[in-house]
Amino acid sequence: MTDGKTNTRQRILEAAGEIFAENGFRQTTIRQISGKADVNIAAINYYFQSKDNLYLETLRCWKDIAFEKYPRELGTSEDDPPEKRLEGFIRSFVFRILDTGIESRFGRLMAREFTEPTAALDIIVEEMARPMFHLISSIVGRIIGKDPANDTVLYCCASIVGQCLYFLYARPVLSRLIGNDRVGSMNMEDIAGHICRFSLAALSAIKEDREGASS
Length: 215
Description:
The protein is mainly alpha-helical. It folds into two domains: 2-59, Homeodomain-like (Arc Repressor Mutant, subunit A, Orthogonal Bundle); 62-214, Tetracycline Repressor, domain 2. The chain has helices at residues 2-23, 30-37, 41-48, 51-69, 82-98, 104-115, 121-144, 151-169, 171-178, 180-185, 188-214. The longest helix has 27 residues, at 188-214.
């Protein structure tokens, strides 16, 4: 019985992830999800009570799937130098949002939520974005020798994350600028590698400027 219930609930979450990612929260109906999951509407109401709660649990489900495959600091540990930890953070972030497999639903769901915010945004910020922000702030702060709460650290973190998100949000524009074939040939390793090199070079320059000013 438990396996059957788990299977039904998971089918609903998988269907909801696909449809919410494609249509967004407001344009998606419970009927569409029930049809995709091959369950009746009563089953969705039983497991999730409301469309709002189904949406929130869908975001949580695909977040967990994406983070299980790509942990916050891919291939690194707290004992590693901050530069290596930043590389792990960037690679994980890029892979998580640009994965073209089933995990791509996470990136698409987040893109929808950030551009078309719902009541779930406050919860997602607290459960996912804030811990990630604290992590990258602490890493960048160590690299440039500033308190994580410093404005320079904030600007650096925003610049790094912005580079990663560009390849998620700007794909339609890039396709028109340089062509679908060239965009399609870009792989996650190359994108992550470039962002790592670019960001570490910039942070090194900022650190040198700071040290030069204090000498």
